[in-house]
Amino acid sequence: MKKIVQNIVFAIIISLGVQSTFAQSKLVNKGNSYYKKAEYYQALQVYLEAQNDGEKLSSDVQIKMGKCYFELNNIERALTTLIEVEDKLSTQEDFLIYAKVYHRSGLYAKEDRGAVFWYEKALKAGANPVQVNELIQSCNWAAAHTDQEPYRVNPSPIFTSGQSFGIQFYKDGVVYSSASESGSKNVDRQGKAFLNLYYSDLVDHEIQKGRLFSKALVTPYHIGAISFTSDFNTMYYTKVVRVKGGESRLKLYKRNYNGNDWDKEIELPFIDENFDYGHPAVSPDDKFLYFVSNMEGNGGRGGKDLYRVERLRGGMYGKVKNLGPEVNTFGDEVFPYISNDNVLYFSSDGHYGFGGLDLFRADYEEGAWKNVRNMYQPFNSVADDFAYIVSPKNPEKGFLSSSRTESGEDLIFTVEFIGEKEEEVIPEEGDVIDLENLPEETIVVEEVVEKPVVDLSMFPELFNAKVKSTYSNIAAAGVTVEIIDDATGKVVATGVSDDKGAFNVVIPDEYRKEGQEFELVFSKDGEFNAKRMIVNIMELADLNSNGLALTPIFNDDVLDDISGMVLYYEGMELTEESLKTLDRLAVYLQKNNQIVVKLNSHTDARGSKLDNLFNSQRMGEKVEGMLMEKGVDGESTIPRGYGERYIVNKCKRGVLCSNEEQLKNRRIEVVVWRVKNK
After folding, report:
1. Is 612 helix (H, G, I), strand (E, B) or coil?
2. HSE value, Cβ hemisphere, 13 Å, CA-based, for 88
3. In what residue span(s) does the OmpA-like domain sit (predicted)?
4. Long-range contacts of 5-8 (CB under 8 A, 24+ apart)
């Protein structure tokens, strides 16, 4: 009997041990699930929870924890964690990340088992030899460049309870992204509080107390990496958004200032939802917009590259161009900025540097950015250094962003030149002037050359075409026509179309010549999308004969038969009345296939918020599929799920409402989004 009792007790102890191990392993499995989805912050929290519960973590899990710290930019913890399992590292990814941790810790030397040692182990394990050899050379370069530039870099006095970066000059102050709401539970996948835009006055280059830049720019997610035109009336910015399929993307938007606040946001037209776009920078002359993207093709070098696009009249843009292999590398190039003296500043982890992102500068020569060079210390450190800007009032001062602090947070730093300034020597009375060293005066005798007489009759003297609407094919009256010299940007002649869509613009004689290129701009605010083209003077004859067409802006007056359409649904099915409305919508979109509509899908506030968000997206996609089955082009619709964010009546979460009242929120609003170019 005693033996039976002992066996029962032993079995209970074993059972409890198995259950305890299972519970702890369940935590690790949960962490592994987050890790596979690249949700490193969540994965690390679960691993730490398992560790705090007393579970002995395997070397594989410890390696993952080290990688999580690396991805979260906590290099010190990544190093101390991976050192403990150094002898368990085995794959090229293990060696490569460990090497990068040493690289970003400023420990480069091979003989000290630093970054070069582990990069070479990654090579032997099969890592990309081109990229890894570049990283090895970068380590050797960093070890050889320890001199300091004559600048002082100090933390700015911006108060923040989290990260702050991406500063830009704005009128008499600065605008920057900051997480200044302490205690916020709304965090991103890296555990960081979401960023908003703040403004601070500048007094003698000192940043004063900050305040929210604009309530119109507050979003539920990150917003930042901004740029302004020279008149501060147009703002470009980066925002994190959810796209079809639930993924997050960086997108570029712009807003115009209306005198009181910033108007509605406009997504830039060259955005492809399969890629990220961010970090805008308007050139000082407002002619170009520089930005960052990981788009494939179009000259992409790998990772994130720098691009630029010409800003054209009427809110249009030219062709997107990659800045080329002298600037872009296999790594990431981010945060471009063009100074008033036309220097490109940017950050990269692909050019030779001290570790992480380093600041670089490039010069514009022969139509391209060249002569890329590292800005050295103290601009750069072993941490991430980025988003450098130069004061337009004093080129010896500026700001940069860096994670070089003990906390590892991205913060804004002031930059100031502390070297000796060259002073101009002004001769005083009694000084002896060395006549032999004075520059010789050169007298240029201009040769008078008679200009040949040009036969102007071979060039058109009038631009007298007709303009019509692409929508109705009727004459477009009141359209402003501008003829601009493409070389100088000077407006040389203007005109306005009459009731028959005709205009008659005289071309000045001095522009009637061989090789003359014109920029033609056609616009009518509020009625037509502006159109721009570059033509040779001899091509005007064809336009005079054939005319041209403008695409109308489809506002509520033009689209009375579609604006305000709402489709209601119960469960995941449209109501009978809404099915009839859907038929009308399908017919309209088939006849007007240049129109793109958004299907803004909403739910009531019952159930889980997350489920409501996903269900609204699924319902929008279902309606999109129903329209496609009726013959509507898939590019004519954009489903967007908003869940319970926009309730139309009192039935918010926690308020008791009838089923009929709740169903008023289960709707899909049809909104005209844009007009496709023909």
Report:
1. helix
2. 13
3. 555-676
4. none
